[in-house]
Design goal:
The chain is mostly helical. About 75% of the residues lie in helices and about 5% in strands. A two-stranded antiparallel ribbon has the order 1-2. The N and C termini lie far apart (about 50 Å).
């Protein structure tokens, strides 16, 4: 049955194996998050997820080569790798949207309330009660760790001229995509 499907559509075994590994990424990610107790605060579970899915794929390729004596073309492997890369980027964007999406977080906070929220209530209840100040502090702390900004005399400054280049690039991108008002 699988052989007929592959012949009919020309899908190689390495590619089918990689698609299977891509579908394992969310389950692997949740497993690593819970095992490491890193709930949205670390990139380590995501890195281990991607490493594990690639390792599973390699093990599957070895299994195909040794047990079934299948020839594995480098072109099929390269195609499979790019499928994995595309799926990984899409999954990363989806996870980032859920984990860090400011607007979605506001919608979720409002949804938790049965009687609606005032702006003041929303500011206090944001991020499971941590509030908007917590979110701002967390973002500033992250930008400081990345050495994009520095704090001196109670004021926030860009850390070095390379950041200015990044700012100009982002402004250009916003202009190109007509996002200057966002």
């Amino acid at each position: 049955m699988v052989e007929n499907f592959m012949i009919m559509f020309g899908i190689s075994k390495p590619l089918i194996l990689m698609i299977f590994c891509c579908f394992l990424i969310p389950a692997l990610h949740v497993t690593f998050i819970r095992t490491m107790n890193k709930y949205g605060e670390s990139i380590k579970p995501l890195v281990w997820t991607y490493i594990s899915s690639i390792l599973l794929w390699f093990i599957g390729l070895i299994f195909l080569k040794v047990i079934f004596r299948n020839e594995i073309s480098p072109t099929a492997c390269l195609s499979a790798f790019f499928i994995h890369l595309g799926f990984s980027i899409g999954y990363l964007e989806f996870f980032s949207l859920i984990n860090r999406g400011y607007s979605l977080s506001i919608v979720m906070e409002i949804a938790k309330s049965k009687n609606g929220l005032t702006e003041k209530d929303l500011v206090r209840s944001y991020a499971s009660g941590k509030g908007l100040k917590w979110m701002l502090d967390k973002r500033i702390q992250g930008l400081t760790k990345l050495k994009l900004i520095k704090i001196a005399d109670g004021k926030i400054f860009l850390d070095h001229t390379k950041v200015l280049l990044l700012v100009r690039l982002l402004k250009l991108g916003k202009s190109i995509f007509s996002l200057s008002k966002s």
